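dumping the sequnces here before i forget
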Amino acid sequence: MKNLLFLVFFFSFSVSFSSSSETDSKDFNVTDMIMHHIKDSHEFHILDWNGKGVSIPLPIILWTDNGLVTFSSSEFHHDDEGTEVVTKKGLSFVKFHEEIYYASSESNSSGQFLSLDKNSYPTNLKPLDFSITKLVFSMFLSMILLVLIFGISAKNYSKSSKGVPSGIAKFTEPLILFIRDEVAIPNIGEKNYKKYMPYLLTLFFFIWINNLMGLIPFFPFSANLTGNIAFTAVLAVITFGITTLAGTKDYWKHIFWMPGLPVPMKLFLAPIEFLGIFIKPISLMIRLFANISAGHIIVLSLISLIFIAETVWIAPLSVGFTVFISLIEILVVAIQAYIFTMLSALYIGSAMEEHEH
Amino acid sequence: MDLVTPDVGLLFWTFCSFAILYFLLKKFAWKPILGSVNDREDSIREALLAAENAKKEMENLKSDNEKILKEAKIERENMLKDAREIKTKLISDAENQAKEQASKLIESAQLAIQNEKNSAMNELKQTVVELSVGIAEKVISSELEDKNKQLKVVENMLNDASLNN
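..and the predicted 3d for all of it:
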């Protein structure tokens, strides 16, 4: 509890630092700030000091017309408006709103090497961007943490006698057993669940730890990875793939030719059931993405109240609410990880179900 | 719109990361952990079963013990009864024997007394005969001192003898 308060204070300060430079030049734009925070970035921003951003440059990896191009994001000199051109392998690149574009040969009126359409959206071509961004960095960190936590847990078992857990395994075992007894066995069934345990466990802990890391508001955490649609999309697609591969003849029959119904009803249900195959993973994807992003947006909005009201007297209220929401978020991120895993298990289980009629 | 457009790079890295994580954790975490958890659960189940069996065996043993105890009790009672019987029998035997012996002793004592009495009587008879012969001798000798008297006796005797014929 004490730590959490500390974190929230820390968070509020980091936000104030990063926004100070913006308030100097123009009005504080809450939407821009929040969008900047919940989106991906090519450098890991730690804090602002005396109006200057302190950040860790991350490698940029591009698949271009001339093959693979790599360089450090520091070569853009913190530019995000397309004014700084980096030339590599005879190609020049600019960064605009955290996207890498092929630079135009000449700058436009505002010094950007881009041609913008009327919605001020660049029309330049983009190379395929495989950069190690803030989110990818965060994901690698979570992988290391997971392998460490569960590798050590597994070691704790072999050391102690008769499979009695010791050390960190005392904490992780109930969680693993929870996934087994409350998620896998009830949804997939005693017969088949073992095959899917590694997937469900990896899924649950991968989502959960990244959710939690997103809640911690300072370097090297604070990345909104699970609130990014690309991340949730990949997991949803994997669940979709497993469900499709696990599907029995019975499952497909229930989708395309529902047994026990009159023919017109069968014809009516088939397209709905068919769409259901895709809607299920899409709902998974959107649920996680929206919940986590919403959590981040709420916390950031509450902190921003101070800058919107432009008075420090709103700070206690703002911080108080942030603490409250953060506490709820701790619960929410665990529930969201659980729901994603639980529904994945449910979909896999329903695809393998043996109907008796 | 940016927010809901997935990035190719992040899609790629997420997929790679998840795949790698899956295989790493499967090999180094889930397999050993779930394996030992399963082993432990099996051993617990076995232990419970063994305990149940042991309990049953104990119950059997208990009932056996009770049976044995009961038998032992009955046996003890029987033995006590026997002993009592033997005791009473012994006592009565001894009594009988003693009585018998006593009566034998008494009998022999009576016999001896009888014998002693008889021999004493005989001796007495002898003595009486000798005394009476002596007296008779003395009487006869005194009687026959006078001739008349001798004749009288012979006469009496002769009278008696004639009467007898």
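The first helix of chain A runs from residue 2 to 25.
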